[in-house]
User: What shape does this take?
Amino acid sequence: MTCSAAYVDADTVSNFFCREEGYNADTTPSENAVNRYIEKGASRINIALMATGMCSCTFNAYAADYLQELNMIAAAIMMFCPDCSRNLKDEERQYWSEWLNGQLELLRSGKLELCSGATAIDYPSVGWAAQSVTDWNHARIIVNARART
Assistant: This one.
C-alpha cells in the first residue's frame, strides 16, 4: 500500500452526507469539489501513516474499512454543503475534528497498527530476554551479556 491515494470515492461521501440518491447538481457540491475534500482528508491520513512507516506494508483486512471511515470523516469536516440533508453543525464538526485528530495521533504514535503481522507499540514483547534452565545455560547468558556491553 502506498500513501498516495484516497480511501473513499465521491459517491460514497455524497451518498452518506448529502443525498441518498447521489449527486444532484442543485443540492450537492460538484463531484470535483467532493474529490478535493476527499484528497485533502486523505493527505492527513497518509502523513500519519508515513510517520510510522505503514505506507509500505500490507494492511490487515479491517484496515481498509477503518481508513475509509477516517477519510470520510476528514472530508465531511471540511465539506460545506448548505443544502445537504446531513450537513455537519459547528459542534459536530468540532467533535469529529477532535475524534479524527485523536485517531491520527494513535496512528502517528504507533498505538494503532494497520500492517498485517505487526503489533502496536503497546504490545508486550522482549526480544533480548534469555531464559536459563540449566547451570551451563545460566553461565552462557552471563558471558553473552558481558560480551554485549
In short: The chain has five helices and no strands. The chain has one domain: 10-123. Helices lie at 10-17, 31-51, 61-78, 90-109, 135-148. The first helix runs from residue 10 to 17.
